[in-house]
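Fresh eyes needed here. Kindly weigh in on this sequence plus structure tokens:
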Amino acid sequence: MDGRGSRPTAVPALVPASLVREDRGGGTLVAMPAMEPPRPASRERGTRRRIPGRRAWLGIAIVAATLTPVVAADEGVTRFGLAQAERAKVFTALPNWSGLWNPVGGLIFDPGTADPKGNNAQQPGDREHPPYNPEWEAKYQAKLDHTLAGYFTDPITNCLPHGMPRLMGGIPGPLEFVVTPEQTWIIWEYGPQLRRIYTDGRGHLAPDERFDSWNGHSTGHWEGDTLVVDTVSMRDDTPYDRTGAPHSDKVHLVERMRLVDPDTFENDMTIEDPVAFTRPWHVNRRYRRIPADTFVSDVVCNETQHSPIVNGQTQFLLPNDPPGYVVGPMPVAPKKP
């Protein structure tokens, strides 16, 4: 209930009307039928087959009733209780993205505009060239100057999440995909971090109901073997990569993900930011399959084999760093007299 009073919970059109009823409080319950074991081929005369009790029905109905109105009202959301045989048919049409994948091109978000060319966003002064307007180019340059002065401004220094769009470029691998009819998950070793892409037919929340989060809100649909993803509602305090390239809270990301060949995965991104950009930014990232027997560990920021604690301070070591190279904490520049 909100200040405007309660509103009835809508039920997807895919749910049979015979399963819908109204509770005493005016809400909507969906009484999903209890699953029954298959009947035996034959049984002795006079025996009684046990039918699941009403408590099982009630438990499932309560779970269904707790669905948020927004999700329940979305057209095309996969219904609960979908027969496994039907779901299996959808699975067979999905591409196989299993395995582990490492990003190609280092930790710079856009290798195509890296300056100097080929930089890995690890040294002070490394940068890229998003299509910023003058105001946001000045903001970016200020961050670069801050780093050159000895201050490391990357939020992950404080173990905050990388956030989106950065997860799709400016983070060390490996990552893996879990593809289902209803969702596609992307899981990173570093963090570990998880991104959910909804492919069950739902859309984004209405603009006045949206809220920003680290990974934003992603919905997708399949065009053949290509997953087309639309992401909004990303926080504005997550840079694109370690160079500090900023974006506004109006950033909008469209991705086209596909297998180029059995060992190459491509994510073709178009980024719009009406506040910061003069035009859309096109970034193409690729990922290379790594041996299937590679062990994925728990890379937790505060204390792991990649980020050991030395003298009470977290050191940030990354897979591509040369031996003995320590990124942070960066030395603080002396104060001017």
In short: The two ends are 59 Å apart (CA to CA). The first strand starts at residue 20 and ends at 22. Residues 134-148 form the longest helix (15 residues). The helical segments are 54-65, 69-73, 84-92, 134-148.
